[in-house]
Description:
This protein is α/β, with parallel strands linked by helices.
Amino acid sequence: MDAKEWKEKLLSEKKNGYDLLDPAEREPMNAYCEAYKAYMNAAKTERECVREGIRQAEEKGFRPYVPGMALAPGDKVYHSNRGKMLLLAVIGQKSLAEGAQMVAAHIDSPRLDLKPNPLYEDGELAYLKTRYYGGIRKYQWMVMPLELHGVVARKDGTTVEVSIGAGDDEPKLVMTDLLPHLAREQSRKPLAEAFPGEQLNILFCSEPMEGDEKDRVKLAAMKLLYEKYGITEADFLSAELEAVPAFKAMDIGFDRSMIGAYGQDDRACGYAGLKALLDLEAVPEKTAVCVLADKEEIGSTGVSAMKTADFDKFMEDLCEGQGVSLRECFAHSFCLSCDVAAAYDPNFPEAFERNNSAFMNYGMGVCKYTGGGGKGGASDASAEVMAYARRIFDGNGILWQVSELGKVDGGGGGTVAGYMADRNIDTLDAGMPLLAMHAPFEITAKLDCYMTYKAMKVVYMN
Ligand code: MN
Ligand code: MN
């Protein structure tokens, strides 16, 4: 053999996904991305993701799961955990004793949560105080239109849904920044210090109520809230109100090859996992389970997060229906922890190591480990699990690449993977590359989104 033949035999060459994409895939890829954008516009909070997920699942024949209900292969069920986490399953042909094929993603995204006492007046303007949720770079969130989504639970047990700014003609909210003329001191500060958390106050209203009461703007704002939602100031104490960017999902690039939207970490994966399950054409061999978890961005702790016993309860109830023990099921299960990867950004090459970075348009990123520094906090998938992934993805025409979360010692992060692996479930991280992760507006490539969706189908069916 000559060098060229040896090269072909021995070395692996990375290729842009567009050099490998079957032309017949173009149309389904674009159709998938249109549906994905519509989902992103309908679901800007974890609660809205659950609601939209249930709506789409019911359209495909999924029914609410009731413990003890008789289930047969092919049956489709879902369980909503307090409206903030969604579990879906398609019962497989084999017993749960042989394990389930799972996809777990998260549907919470970085945002600004209102504090329990949010409303105040200063300088005859009404503001809402926030506590940021998740890892945000605060300066990115200033001076851009925001919407307010969420619920207010009243003391009498009733709940009212709040949505301000979601419609095109609805008013938006905003946080202000200093004019450059007067920002000399602020501009000298390091990025992390220039915007203290207590300055993340949302401009809410400006027109005062007639009369000479103190805080007339705040009072007028509260009156508007009372008239529209029937709530008083005390009701803020039992509310979950989230300020999110007012952007719609949109095509990015003159060639329309990318998607820009708020919350693609991790709804790009959540949607892929959901849609793949909804679109399964045949009854899977093993039971296919899709997990859409809340609270990943703040550590996966909490009653609606991946560590919740509600997930174990759902799985155990399904197992009991078949006379199988949960630990037996978990021991033979596989979970793809589907979360976005950090895409190599040519604008910031110093943050990445090229040989092990995920590139835009190279397909789904498969991440053996996340974590920081010396794999700290990572669920490091075994060589055998990686080999299994190579086998099922290569064997089913999935375009994929390896991904690592940036340079060694550059920082780090985690996903829900560890909490699945802790349950004795073989788990692997994977997801599409994302530019500007955690920014109010994040960028994915259409090809990568579509390949991740196809890969989730392969996981469910293998
Ligand atoms: Mn994520
Ligand atoms: Mn994240």
